[in-house]
Amino acid sequence: ISVVLCCLSDDGKLSFDEFNAYFADGILTTEELQELFYSLDGQQNKFDLDLKTLYDFAQHLGGYVNVLSALEILNVAILEAMNKTKKEYQDSSVLGQFVTRFMLRETSSQLLSLQMSLQCAMEAVEEQSRPYHLITQYSVSDTQRHHTTQHHASCISVLNTMHHRTTKHYGTTSLLNTIAPPHY
Questions:
Q1: Which BP terms from GO are recorded (predicted)?
Q2: Do residue 47 and residue 96 come from a single domain?
Q3: Domain limits for position 145
Q4: I want to staple 32 with a disulfide (CB 3.0 to 4.6 A). Which of 28, 40, 58, 141 is the partner?
């Protein structure tokens, strides 16, 4: 829901210009985005979307609501840990500093792994979306099909590597939990 709230202007409504600035994805044309904007509440004469309409829109987020919620929690946790590190790192023991550096590297590695997986997924979805728009204007060439096939193969390779790293991560998490169980 916060993804919807973050694009609201001070008046509590979302104009088409704000909607377009936040949601333009390079796939839909401005006209198609405008049709989508007006279809959200079914009133073509309305110039702004209100909070209730935006909440209704959020119902289409599906499983990504949980992902976005988890990202918000993760963001807060990382910022709190970094703030604590900033305050305590210099006075920590050699072991404490070593663990802090290790955890920063491991956290960064895991986030990069997720980012690469998401980037591949986004590119694959965009590639699947483009032929629909290209078919109406141009025919998809063999070169474009070959490039798409090669791109998907490289993404699969990246995702396999990410799976290996994720498996390693769970091993790291298990090891850390054995050494120092989490406090709840």
A1: regulation of amyloid precursor protein biosynthetic process
A2: no
A3: 92-179
A4: 28
User: Which single residue is written with the structure tokens 């993760």?
Assistant: 74
Measuring CA to CA, how many Å separate 125 from each of 25, 43, 58, 131? 11, 30, 20, 11
Domain assignment of residue 77, yes or no: no
3 is written with which tokens? 């993804």
Query: How far apart are alpha carbons 134 and 180 in whole angstroms?
Result: 55
Separation of CA 132 from chain center:
24
Tell me whether residue 76 is in a domain. no
- Cα–Cα distance measured from residue 8 to residue 2, given in angstroms and rounded to the nearest whole number: 10
The pLDDT profile of the chain, 184 residues, written as one tens digit per residue, is 455 555 555 666 778 888 888 888 888 899 998 888 888 866 655 667 777 777 777 788 888 888 988 999 999 999 999 999 999 999 999 999 999 999 999 999 999 999 999 999 988 888 888 755 555 544 445 555 555 555 556 666 655 565 555 545 555 555 555 555 555 4
Distance CA 153, CA 159 (A): 10
* Domain CATH for 40: 1.10.238
Question: Is the distance from CB of 47 to CB of 15 less than 8 angstroms?
Answer: yes
Other C-beta atoms lying within 10 Å of the C-beta of residue 54: 21
* pTM for the full predicted model: 0.59
For 14, phi then psi, to 5°, come to -115, 115
Domain annotation covers residue 19: yes
